[in-house]
Write the structure tokens for this entry.
Amino acid sequence: MIIKNTPLPFYAKSAFILIGIMALGFLIILGKELLDPLMFGFLFAILLLPLANFFERKLKMPRSMSGFLSILLMVAFISGIVYLVGTQISNLANDWPMLKDQVGKSASDIQIWVQHTFHVNAEKQMVYVNDTTDKLMASGTSIFGTTFGAVSSLLLFYVFIIIFTFLILFYRRLLFRFVIYVFNEEAAKTVHNIAESIQSILRKYIIGLLLEMVIVSAISCIAFWIIGVKYAMLLGIITGLFNIIPYVGIFSALLLSTLITFATGAISKAIIVAIVVVAIHVIDSNVILPLVVGSKVRLNALITFMGIILGEMLWGLSGMFLSIPVIAIFKIIFDHVHGLRPWGYLLGGDYEYNRQAQEEMKTE
């Protein structure tokens, strides 16, 4: 008796794919506490790999010492940024009496505007404000406890990232050989090329984002200083830091910069700051980002935006950060596997197809 393998119909294949995606999404949500710091540790390990190799090969350091020193330099760099931002925030705190008076004056102007526009007298407005204040004060204990728990979890999250980064750097050769051994000898070369491409592209992408952050921060600081904003350096650094968050970061930087400028100056200056932030974002999106980050990770805007939303739904803010590198990893895999190249084309778009066609014409 001969048994023939009949191909599954399209709707059956689609159902299996949908069930697999749902199961994978459930596992990703379930394993967030482990996978989240592991992914950040993987990205930091890729970023620090050349530095660790330099310490190990050129300076003849042990692998553990080279990884530890690389992480120590990274922590020192991040601590320097935190110290710089903290210094500016402390200056803002020293001017708290002036800010309080400015906010009180602005609140009075808003109160008069609300009374004339919506015909709500000042007494009703104050009753609403007092009720809201009483509710916030009543829930102050729970808010403090929640904030303390969130800060503790965040610190523990950072510790896990450092530990994972060190372990991935220490066992990097073991992990790489394991990935090679999983597949047969025929696919070993393809797997090796995929791993090398992932390392190279993600490293260049992360370094490009950091360089973009520095450039945007410098331009913002200079622009705010020319305008005459009091906390120009603080607002410039905030704009550069928040600019790393795709799509959402510009709105957060716009809101914070406008509010702080409004609290320390006139409303006209706050409007100018808002216009400047939007102009810097336009310049960054059309000039700085293509030049600095380059075309190493070419993802179309639709897939990128969907990935950011999906990442926020699954893992929150960290999912938004990790969405683009994860999609880039999938695109590299799809481009190297013949049966998955249509999906790689979907993630990239027509410009990727046109670029490959031009390269093939040059080789011919």
User: Anything to note?
Assistant: The first helix runs from residue 10 to 30. Confidence is low (pLDDT under 50) at residues 140-150, 360-364. The chain is about 85% helix and 0% strand.
